[in-house]
Amino acid sequence: MKVNNAIQGIRRLFLDTAPIIYYVENHPNYYELTQVIFDGIDEGLLLGVTSPISLSECLVYPYKLGLIALAQDFIYLIVDGENINFVLIDEDIGNLAAQMRARYNLSLTDALQIATAIQSNCDAFLTNDLQLKRVNELSILVISELTL
């Protein structure tokens, strides 16, 4: 499916870790696809939603290699980016995450991401994890299934 068609009608889009990394690190296979999405966010056509899980996962590699400027790029985009809503995990998200884990046998991090997206009224969840397509509570968009 074409990326523009996939995001048509979506107002709130949860950004899982992989698409953020692809965009910030200019991934050779997925940068152009994620650029379309982040352009939509920059233009205010989409509201991106993220969580501390996305932040933590994105920062591992830069911190491991001492790439402080790259870490700051991630922090700025995820926490302070324009048209990006950084949602803290609270008891309601924790409760819903437990339900998602029980229903779909998700990892804790995936369950917390999905629960954050649902609690934040996201229309879709952008990931590159095909296994998350079994979640029925919101639309799951998988980067590897999108085209330009």
What brief labels describe this structure?
7 helices, globular, alpha/beta, 148 residues, 5-stranded parallel β-sheet
The sequence of SSEs as H and E is HEHHEHHEHHEE
The coarse silhouette is globular
Question: How many domains is the backbone divided into?
Answer: 1
- Count the DSSP helices: 7
Description:
The chain has 148 residues and is α/β, with parallel strands linked by helices. The chain has one domain (3-88, 124-145): Rossmann fold. 53% of the residues lie in helices and 13% in strands. The chain has helices at residues 3-7, 17-24, 31-42, 52-65, 68-80, 91-104, 108-119; strands at residues 12-15, 47-50, 84-86, 124-127, 139-142. Strands 3-2-1-4-5 form a five-stranded parallel sheet, sandwiched between helices. Helix 2 packs across helix 3. The longest helix is centred in the middle third of the chain and has 14 residues, at 52-65. It is globular, with a radius of gyration of 14 Å. The termini are close together. The model has no long low-confidence stretch (mean pLDDT 97).
In short:
With 148 residues, the protein is of the alpha/beta class. The protein contains seven helices and five strands, in the order αβααβααβααββ.
Write the layout of secondary structure elements.
Elements: H1 3-7, E1 12-15, H2 17-24, H3 31-42, E2 47-50, H4 52-65, H5 68-80, E3 84-86, H6 91-104, H7 108-119, E4 124-127, E5 139-142
Parallel strand pairs: 1-2, 1-4, 2-3, 4-5
